[in-house]
Design brief:
α2 packs across α3. This protein has 13 helices and five strands. α12 links the parallel β4 and β5. The termini are far apart. It is about 60% helix and about 10% strand. It is elongated, with a radius of gyration of 22 Å. The chain has two domains: about 70 residues, Arc Repressor Mutant, subunit A, CATH 1.10.10; about 160 residues, 3-Layer(aba) Sandwich (Rossmann fold). It has a five-stranded parallel beta sheet with strand order 2-1-3-4-5, sandwiched between helices. The protein is α/β, with parallel strands linked by helices and about 280 residues long. This is MurR/RpiR family transcriptional regulator. It comes from Shouchella lehensis. One of its GO terms (molecular function) is DNA-binding transcription factor activity.
């Protein structure tokens, strides 16, 4: 895919003075990807339709696609150092929010670089073929397991979130080669998770592990390791950032599986939505 500057170069001869003003603003702003279309138009002293004409001329499908492309390119060119994004005692709420956004940005960029698309697709196929799908996690990772199960339940089938290590052990002892476990552990060294995964593997279960440590104990026992990345700063652990990255990865798996399910998947998702809607006033 062509980068923003490359697209401008290709269209340079056809750019109008109005479009040049918009491009200038996109270049001089520190974070142009945070601007709404109205804000960009106001700063450029042009109309919103002029912004629309520009992103279409540059062959972006939408203004959102242009913003995402700019964000990704800036993350590649200027990754924030830990010193810059570390939260200081004197920081205002606005500054802290901006720094946390930068941390998320950096974590997403690092994860994108580290994550294997081939492994993601293998995980998708394993989930599709599973008779039973389990999500294992403990502590904060248990909430990620519950979120994952909640998503995949919408597609029907046998989906369970299990956070109690005793329950995990019981389920693991009865698994077969038709079962798939998605285990979440940022460190990859949660002892109980390692023990139940080892037990489940002996019974033939397929193990998908979401972790930041590819050399961890649970990564060693896994059939498929999906790596996430998040840095720790002085005043904030990486727990919050890692959870956000894990959520995005879980959403990616769910969206791919739902897409592969086709019309039947859409029917089941709508059926699930209707069931929940009936519980509301």
């Amino acid at each position: 895919m062509l980068r923003f500057e490359e697209r401008i170069t290709l269209k340079k001869k056809s750019l109008t003075a109005t479009e040049e003003k918009i491009i200038h603003q996109l270049k001089v702003q520190d974070k142009p990807f945070l601007l709404s279309m109205g804000e960009l138009a106001m700063l450029s002293e042009v109309s919103e339709p002029s912004v629309v004409r520009l992103y279409k001329k540059l062959e972006y499908q939408s203004y959102q696609e242009l913003k995402v492309a700019l964000a990704q390119e800036m993350a590649d060119m200027k990754p924030s150092s830990l010193e810059i994004i570390d939260i200081a005692k004197e920081d205002t709420a606005e500054t802290i929010f901006e720094k946390m956004a930068d941390q998320v940005f950096q974590a997403m960029a690092l994860t994108k670089e580290k994550l294997s698309n081939e492994r993601v697709e293998e995980a998708v196929q394993a989930i599709i073929e599973a008779n039973r799908l389990y999500f294992f996690g403990q502590g904060l990772s248990a909430t990620m397991a519950e979120d994952g199960a909640h998503k995949f339940m919408r597609l029907g089938g046998n989906v369970l979130s299990v956070k109690d290590p005793h329950y995990q052990a019981i389920y693991a002892s009865h698994m077969t080669n038709k079962d798939v476990i998605v285990a979440i552990s940022h460190s990859g060294e949660t002892t109980n998770i390692y023990e139940v995964l080892t037990m489940a593997k002996k019974h033939g279960a397929y193990l998908i592990v979401i972790t930041a440590n590819e050399h961890s104990s649970i990564a060693d026992v896994a059939d498929n390791v999906l790596l996430t990345q998040a840095h720790e700063t002085k005043r904030q652990s990486d727990a919050m950032i890692s959870r956000l990255v894990q959520l995005v990865l879980m959403d990616t798996l769910y969206t791919r599986v739902a897409a592969e399910a086709g019309d039947d998947g859409k029917k089941k998702i709508n059926q699930s939505r209707l069931a929940v809607t009936r519980m509301k006033k």
